Amino acid sequence: MNISFTTIGLWVLRVIAAAIMLQTLYFKFSGAEESVYIFSKLGIEPWGRIGTGILELIASVLILYPRTTFLGATLGAGLMIGAIGAHLTKLGIVINNDGGLLFAYALLVFIACVLLIVLLRNELAGFLKRLLYKITNR
User: Fold this and answer.
1) Nearest residue to 123 (alpha-carbon basis) of 78, 74, 68, 75
2) How far apart are CA 38 and CA 43, in angstroms?
3) Going by C-beta distance under 8 Å and a sequence separation of 6 or more, which residues neighbour residue 27?
4) Closest CA to 65 of 9, 101, 15
């Protein structure tokens, strides 16, 4: 069995990004106190919390399926830009004495997603070309 370093690296990045986003879903969907606090402070509780959870679930599933990894990574990176922006502007790095753990997770997911996008950029370009072709040739 010949598995390349790139294949292993892609799966490590996929698992990191998806596992972190999937792990936070329990807190978002159960209405955990810290999740409600975060989204209340942002002024988008409960719909922002639930909507973000749904989008993170979609991104995670797309990331784990190799044919759609680039789409999930793009969605995941966008979501993490929002999370990082919220931390830097309204929430602060440390939330409820978490030592900055949620911020670190957002950075880690963002980095993993950006690396996936860079490594799979040819697939993304091909997808966009096919989509543009379908749109223009109706």
Assistant:
1) 68
2) 9
3) 34, 35
4) 15
How many Å apart are CA 15 and CA 11, to the nearest integer?
Answer: 6
pLDDT digits (tens, 9 = 90+) for 44-85: 999 999 999 999 999 999 999 998 999 999 999 999 999 999
Contact 12, 116 (CB under 8 A): no
**115 is in which domain, residue-wise?**
5-136
Residues 6+ apart with CB under 8 A from 73: 17, 59, 62, 63, 112, 113, 114, 116, 117, 120
Dump the DSSP string for 59-100.
HHHHHHSGGGHHHHHHHHHHHHHHHHHHIIIII-S-STT-TT
Number of domains in the chain: 1
Confirm whether pTM is higher than 0.85: yes
